Amino acid sequence: MTISAPKHDLLTVVLEDYFQVGALSTLISPRQWYRFETRFERNTLETLELLKRHDIRATFFVLGWIAEQNPHLIAEISNQGHEIANYGFYHRNVRQMTREEFREDARRSRDALELASGRRVIGFRIPQGLRSTSDLWMLDVLAEEKYVYDSSVFRSLHNAHGLRNRTAYQHQSSSGQLWEFPHATLNYLGFQLPISHLANACGCELEEKYWRSLHDLFSRLGARSRPAAHQCGVFPDAHPPIPEPRQDELGTGGLFPQVQVWQYC
To answer: What is the C-alpha separation between 172 and 136, in angstroms, rounded?
Structure first.
């Protein structure tokens, strides 16, 4: 008689603040972050309480900037049994950095996270993800830096073998290998629907009610339809900011000044 191992879903939490999202990068530079009221601490503590209540452990992808600003919060996350992983230092996507700039950004952030948590950081995720094979050099750098895994690839991106991966696979490079855990998707009516970090998968980070509602719907559908053969088939993603009546409206400017980004924090 064969006894199958229990199946587990993986929960990831992206720790960033409302003024740091990619949709506002042309409007607010990291040099201006100090001007904004930070809310990540309050919301993260509420998230930790919720996870503790339901006895859930998660991986927190944290900006190095936040670790430098509030190392005690990162220590508290780690002390409660959650994993700390790297989300870069200044919330820059892969297209905004050269190979060496990325390496320096990842090292600076990792140093801040390890100093704050007191534990080794082995995982990485890049803001806004990887959508092109021309960006896969980032995985080679992570392998050189001795990371164990990355979670940046979106389902639509082919790997080195020309395949689209929905589940974890090993990325091979001259510097070694790296586990890649792609963002979760749901195959529905021939379409690959994102069920983790929906806004990023759609090429933006507009955290509106519309995206949040779809994210919740797709996540529920994905969890229910996980293939029986997949041991870790669903990687839902959360952000600590919790919807509440208070809202911030920030114009993105550019060609479409009427477009607004609403942050519920």
So the answer is: 11
pLDDT of residue 229: 37
Element (H, E) at 238: strand 237-238
Alpha carbon of residue 189 to chain centroid: 26
Q: Which residues contact 148 (CB under 8 A, 6 or more apart)?
A: 122, 123, 178, 179
Q: What is the per-residue pLDDT across 202-214, written as a single tens digit (0 to 9) for each? A: 333 434 344 444 4
pLDDT band of residue 118 (cuts 50, 70, 90) is very high
H/E element, 90: none
Separation between Cα atoms, residue 152 and residue 127, nearest integer Å: 8
Range name among 80-84, 136-140, 157-161, 241-245 with the lowest pLDDT average: 241-245
Torsion angle of alpha carbons 81, 87, 91, 95, nearest 10°?
-170
**12-264 architecture in CATH?**
Alpha-Beta Barrel (3.20)
CA atoms lying within 13 Å on the CB side of residue 181 = 22
Cα distance between the two ends of the chain: 51
pLDDT in tens, 135-170: 889 999 999 999 999 999 876 555 544 445 557 889
Domain boundaries, the chain: 12-264
